[in-house]
Amino acid sequence: MTVAKIAIVTGGSRGLGRNTVLQLAKRGVCSIFTYRTNRAEADNVVNLAAEAGQRAIALPLDTGQVSAFDAFVEQVRDALKELGAARFDYLVNNAGTSHHAPFEATTEAELDSLYNVHFKGVFFLTQKLLPLINDGGRIVNVSSGLTRIAYPGSTSYASMKGAVEVLTRYLAKELGPRRIAVNTVAPGAVATDFSGGMVRDNPEVNRLVSEATALGRAGVPDDIGPMIASLLSDDHRWVNAQRIEVSGGLMI
Predict the structure, then answer these.
(1) How many CB atoms lie within 10 A of CB 4?
(2) CA distances from 214 to 114, 217, 250 (A)
(3) Long-range contact list for 203-211, CB < 8 A, 24+ apart?
(4) Gap between the Cα atoms of 144 and 244, Å rounded
(5) Which of 38, 64, 111, 180 is most buried (most C-beta within 10 Å)?
(6) Do the Cβ atoms of 79 and 32 come closer than 8 Å?
(7) For 127-150, what is each residue's pLDDT tens digit?
(8) DSSP designation for 14
(9) What is the set of domains in the chain, with CATH numbers?
(10) Strand ranges (DSSP E) for 66-173?
(11) How are beta strands 56-60 and 243-246 bridged, if at all?
Protein backbone atom coordinates (compact mmCIF):
# COMPACT_ATOMS: atom_id res chain seq x y z
CA MET A 1 0.00 0.00 0.00
CA THR A 2 1.30 3.43 -0.94
CA VAL A 3 1.82 5.68 2.08
CA ALA A 4 0.45 9.20 1.62
CA LYS A 5 2.92 12.05 1.48
CA ILE A 6 2.82 14.42 4.44
CA ALA A 7 3.21 18.21 4.41
CA ILE A 8 3.72 20.71 7.20
CA VAL A 9 2.09 24.05 6.41
CA THR A 10 2.46 27.03 8.74
CA GLY A 11 -0.47 29.42 8.91
CA GLY A 12 -2.79 26.79 7.47
CA SER A 13 -6.08 27.84 9.05
CA ARG A 14 -6.79 30.77 6.75
CA GLY A 15 -5.99 32.44 3.44
CA LEU A 16 -3.29 30.97 1.24
CA GLY A 17 -2.21 28.39 3.82
CA ARG A 18 -5.73 27.07 4.15
CA ASN A 19 -6.07 26.79 0.39
CA THR A 20 -2.73 25.00 0.19
CA VAL A 21 -3.77 22.41 2.79
CA LEU A 22 -7.01 21.72 0.90
CA GLN A 23 -5.32 21.55 -2.50
CA LEU A 24 -2.77 19.11 -1.11
CA ALA A 25 -5.62 16.99 0.30
CA LYS A 26 -7.18 16.82 -3.16
CA ARG A 27 -3.85 15.51 -4.42
CA GLY A 28 -3.64 12.80 -1.78
CA VAL A 29 -1.29 14.59 0.62
CA CYS A 30 -1.90 14.67 4.38
CA SER A 31 -1.05 17.86 6.28
CA ILE A 32 0.06 18.96 9.69
CA PHE A 33 -0.72 22.65 9.79
CA THR A 34 -0.36 25.43 12.31
CA TYR A 35 -2.75 28.08 13.51
CA ARG A 36 -2.16 31.00 15.83
CA THR A 37 -5.31 31.38 17.97
CA ASN A 38 -8.51 30.49 16.11
CA ARG A 39 -9.15 26.83 16.84
CA ALA A 40 -12.59 26.93 15.22
CA GLU A 41 -11.09 28.00 11.87
CA ALA A 42 -8.45 25.27 12.20
CA ASP A 43 -11.08 22.61 12.94
CA ASN A 44 -13.00 23.70 9.86
CA VAL A 45 -9.92 23.14 7.70
CA VAL A 46 -9.48 19.68 9.24
CA ASN A 47 -13.06 18.83 8.31
CA LEU A 48 -12.73 20.20 4.77
CA ALA A 49 -9.53 18.21 4.23
CA ALA A 50 -11.36 15.08 5.37
CA GLU A 51 -14.10 15.81 2.84
CA ALA A 52 -11.36 16.00 0.21
CA GLY A 53 -10.17 12.57 1.29
CA GLN A 54 -7.12 13.17 3.49
CA ARG A 55 -6.15 13.64 7.11
CA ALA A 56 -5.10 17.04 8.43
CA ILE A 57 -3.91 17.74 11.95
CA ALA A 58 -3.97 21.26 13.41
CA LEU A 59 -1.31 22.36 15.91
CA PRO A 60 -1.11 25.76 17.64
CA LEU A 61 2.08 27.74 17.03
CA ASP A 62 3.26 31.33 17.08
CA THR A 63 5.98 31.22 14.43
CA GLY A 64 7.51 34.37 15.90
CA GLN A 65 8.34 32.59 19.19
CA VAL A 66 11.46 30.51 18.56
CA SER A 67 11.48 29.37 22.18
CA ALA A 68 8.33 27.33 21.43
CA PHE A 69 9.85 25.39 18.54
CA ASP A 70 11.35 22.48 20.50
CA ALA A 71 7.97 21.69 22.05
CA PHE A 72 6.33 22.07 18.64
CA VAL A 73 8.73 19.55 17.09
CA GLU A 74 7.68 17.02 19.74
CA GLN A 75 4.04 17.68 18.84
CA VAL A 76 4.96 17.10 15.20
CA ARG A 77 6.56 13.77 16.12
CA ASP A 78 3.32 12.73 17.85
CA ALA A 79 1.23 13.89 14.88
CA LEU A 80 3.43 11.92 12.50
CA LYS A 81 2.92 8.79 14.59
CA GLU A 82 -0.82 9.42 14.38
CA LEU A 83 -0.47 9.49 10.61
CA GLY A 84 1.58 6.29 10.65
CA ALA A 85 4.89 7.92 9.75
CA ALA A 86 8.19 8.95 11.33
CA ARG A 87 9.04 11.71 8.85
CA PHE A 88 7.34 14.18 6.55
CA ASP A 89 7.94 15.16 2.93
CA TYR A 90 7.08 18.82 2.38
CA LEU A 91 7.44 22.04 4.38
CA VAL A 92 5.56 25.20 3.42
CA ASN A 93 6.68 28.25 5.41
CA ASN A 94 3.59 30.37 4.86
CA ALA A 95 2.63 31.99 8.19
CA GLY A 96 2.97 35.75 8.24
CA THR A 97 1.71 39.10 9.39
CA SER A 98 1.22 42.29 7.41
CA HIS A 99 2.65 45.73 8.07
CA HIS A 100 1.99 49.04 6.36
CA ALA A 101 3.88 52.13 7.52
CA PRO A 102 6.27 54.64 5.97
CA PHE A 103 9.96 53.92 6.50
CA GLU A 104 10.42 56.95 8.74
CA ALA A 105 7.47 55.96 10.95
CA THR A 106 8.35 52.28 11.47
CA THR A 107 9.30 51.50 15.06
CA GLU A 108 11.96 49.13 16.34
CA ALA A 109 9.27 46.97 17.93
CA GLU A 110 7.40 46.69 14.61
CA LEU A 111 10.58 45.74 12.75
CA ASP A 112 11.51 43.19 15.40
CA SER A 113 8.05 41.62 15.15
CA LEU A 114 8.33 41.30 11.38
CA TYR A 115 11.83 39.86 11.69
CA ASN A 116 10.74 37.28 14.26
CA VAL A 117 7.87 35.97 12.13
CA HIS A 118 9.09 36.38 8.57
CA PHE A 119 12.79 35.58 8.83
CA LYS A 120 13.98 34.33 12.22
CA GLY A 121 10.96 32.07 12.58
CA VAL A 122 11.34 30.63 9.08
CA PHE A 123 15.09 30.13 9.62
CA PHE A 124 14.89 28.30 12.93
CA LEU A 125 11.66 26.36 12.37
CA THR A 126 13.16 24.94 9.18
CA GLN A 127 16.36 24.14 11.07
CA LYS A 128 14.47 22.40 13.88
CA LEU A 129 12.40 20.32 11.45
CA LEU A 130 15.29 19.22 9.23
CA PRO A 131 15.88 15.95 11.10
CA LEU A 132 12.26 14.98 10.38
CA ILE A 133 12.04 15.81 6.67
CA ASN A 134 12.67 12.98 4.25
CA ASP A 135 15.66 13.06 1.94
CA GLY A 136 14.30 14.05 -1.45
CA GLY A 137 11.70 16.29 0.20
CA ARG A 138 10.75 19.82 -0.74
CA ILE A 139 10.51 23.18 0.97
CA VAL A 140 8.52 26.19 -0.23
CA ASN A 141 9.01 29.58 1.40
CA VAL A 142 6.23 32.06 0.72
CA SER A 143 7.49 35.53 -0.17
CA SER A 144 5.73 38.45 -1.86
CA GLY A 145 5.50 40.33 -5.13
CA LEU A 146 6.65 43.32 -3.05
CA THR A 147 10.25 42.13 -3.26
CA ARG A 148 10.12 43.04 -6.95
CA ILE A 149 7.69 45.96 -6.83
CA ALA A 150 8.62 48.86 -4.54
CA TYR A 151 5.35 49.99 -2.95
CA PRO A 152 5.60 52.82 -0.40
CA GLY A 153 4.71 51.70 3.11
CA SER A 154 5.96 48.15 2.61
CA THR A 155 9.68 48.69 3.19
CA SER A 156 9.97 46.62 6.36
CA TYR A 157 7.72 43.75 5.25
CA ALA A 158 9.30 43.48 1.81
CA SER A 159 12.83 43.59 3.26
CA MET A 160 12.09 40.55 5.44
CA LYS A 161 10.64 38.70 2.46
CA GLY A 162 13.75 39.60 0.48
CA ALA A 163 15.85 37.98 3.21
CA VAL A 164 13.74 34.83 2.92
CA GLU A 165 14.40 34.72 -0.82
CA VAL A 166 18.17 34.79 -0.19
CA LEU A 167 17.75 32.14 2.52
CA THR A 168 15.91 29.97 0.00
CA ARG A 169 18.84 29.93 -2.41
CA TYR A 170 21.31 29.10 0.33
CA LEU A 171 19.12 26.31 1.67
CA ALA A 172 18.86 24.86 -1.83
CA LYS A 173 22.65 24.72 -1.97
CA GLU A 174 23.23 23.38 1.53
CA LEU A 175 20.43 20.80 1.42
CA GLY A 176 21.32 19.62 -2.07
CA PRO A 177 23.28 16.61 -0.76
CA ARG A 178 20.01 15.39 0.78
CA ARG A 179 18.19 16.02 -2.52
CA ILE A 180 15.85 18.53 -0.83
CA ALA A 181 14.66 21.17 -3.28
CA VAL A 182 13.91 24.63 -1.88
CA ASN A 183 11.96 27.30 -3.74
CA THR A 184 10.21 30.60 -3.14
CA VAL A 185 6.64 31.33 -4.21
CA ALA A 186 5.91 35.05 -4.37
CA PRO A 187 2.16 35.84 -4.59
CA GLY A 188 0.98 39.16 -5.92
CA ALA A 189 -2.02 41.01 -4.48
CA VAL A 190 -4.53 38.37 -3.36
CA ALA A 191 -8.09 38.86 -2.10
CA THR A 192 -7.91 37.34 1.40
CA ASP A 193 -8.26 38.70 4.94
CA PHE A 194 -4.52 39.51 4.93
CA SER A 195 -3.79 43.18 5.62
CA GLY A 196 -7.27 43.55 7.04
CA GLY A 197 -8.84 42.29 3.82
CA MET A 198 -7.50 45.31 1.94
CA VAL A 199 -7.55 43.75 -1.54
CA ARG A 200 -10.69 41.68 -0.93
CA ASP A 201 -12.89 44.26 0.80
CA ASN A 202 -11.78 47.64 -0.54
CA PRO A 203 -13.28 48.12 -4.04
CA GLU A 204 -10.87 50.92 -4.89
CA VAL A 205 -7.79 48.88 -4.00
CA ASN A 206 -9.19 45.89 -5.88
CA ARG A 207 -9.80 48.06 -8.93
CA LEU A 208 -6.26 49.48 -8.86
CA VAL A 209 -4.77 46.01 -8.57
CA SER A 210 -6.93 44.71 -11.41
CA GLU A 211 -5.88 47.58 -13.67
CA ALA A 212 -2.20 46.93 -12.91
CA THR A 213 -2.47 43.18 -13.64
CA ALA A 214 -2.04 41.78 -17.15
CA LEU A 215 -4.85 39.26 -16.61
CA GLY A 216 -7.18 42.00 -15.44
CA ARG A 217 -8.09 41.03 -11.86
CA ALA A 218 -6.72 40.60 -8.37
CA GLY A 219 -5.60 37.17 -7.30
CA VAL A 220 -7.68 34.75 -5.22
CA PRO A 221 -6.50 31.90 -2.97
CA ASP A 222 -7.38 29.35 -5.67
CA ASP A 223 -4.69 30.95 -7.83
CA ILE A 224 -1.98 30.25 -5.26
CA GLY A 225 -2.75 27.03 -3.37
CA PRO A 226 -2.83 24.81 -6.48
CA MET A 227 0.46 26.29 -7.66
CA ILE A 228 2.18 25.50 -4.35
CA ALA A 229 0.71 22.00 -4.31
CA SER A 230 1.89 21.47 -7.88
CA LEU A 231 5.38 22.76 -7.11
CA LEU A 232 5.69 20.20 -4.31
CA SER A 233 4.82 17.33 -6.66
CA ASP A 234 7.24 15.11 -8.54
CA ASP A 235 6.31 16.96 -11.73
CA HIS A 236 8.57 19.79 -10.52
CA ARG A 237 11.36 17.72 -9.02
CA TRP A 238 14.02 19.56 -11.07
CA VAL A 239 12.88 23.07 -10.05
CA ASN A 240 15.23 24.30 -7.33
CA ALA A 241 16.47 27.59 -5.84
CA GLN A 242 13.88 29.58 -7.81
CA ARG A 243 11.68 32.57 -7.02
CA ILE A 244 8.37 31.98 -8.78
CA GLU A 245 6.00 34.92 -8.82
CA VAL A 246 2.30 34.06 -9.00
CA SER A 247 0.64 37.39 -9.70
CA GLY A 248 -1.19 37.24 -13.01
CA GLY A 249 1.38 39.66 -14.42
CA LEU A 250 1.19 42.42 -11.81
CA MET A 251 2.97 45.63 -12.82
CA ILE A 252 4.97 44.19 -15.71
Answers:
(1) 20
(2) 30, 8, 6
(3) 209/250
(4) 10
(5) 180
(6) yes
(7) 999 999 999 999 999 999 999 999
(8) S
(9) 6-246 (3.40.50.720)
(10) 88-93, 133-142
(11) unpaired
The string of DSSP letters for 163-229 reads HHHHHHHHHHHHTGGGT-EEEEEEE-SB-SSGGGGHHHH-HHHHHHHHHTBTTSS-B-HHHHHHHHH
Contact 248, 217 (CB under 8 A): yes
% residues pLDDT > 90 (the chain): 87
229 exposure class (CB count in 10 Å sphere: 0-12, 13-18, 19+):
buried
User: Helix or strand or coil: residue 68?
Assistant: helix
Between the alpha carbon of residue 50 and those of residues 45, 53, 94, the distances in Å are 9, 5, 21
Q: For the chain, what is the largest distance between any 2 Cα atoms, rounded to a whole number of angstroms?
A: 59
Which helix (DSSP H) or strand (DSSP E) does residue 6 occupy?
strand 6-9
The sign one gets for the Cα dihedral 127, 129, 132, 138 is negative
Q: Which of 54, 143, 129, 49 is nearest to 89 (CA)?
A: 129
pTM assigned to the model: 0.95
Calpha distance 150→152 (Å, rounded): 6
> Residues 6 or more apart from 30 whose CB is under 8 A from it?
4, 5, 6, 7, 24, 54, 55, 56, 57, 83
Known catalytic residues are 157
Contact assessment for residue 148 and residue 186, using Cβ atoms and an 8 Å cutoff: yes
CA dihedral 218, 223, 225, 229 (to 10 degrees): -150
Please name the helix (run of DSSP H) or strand (run of DSSP E) that holds residue 34, with its range, or none.
strand 30-35
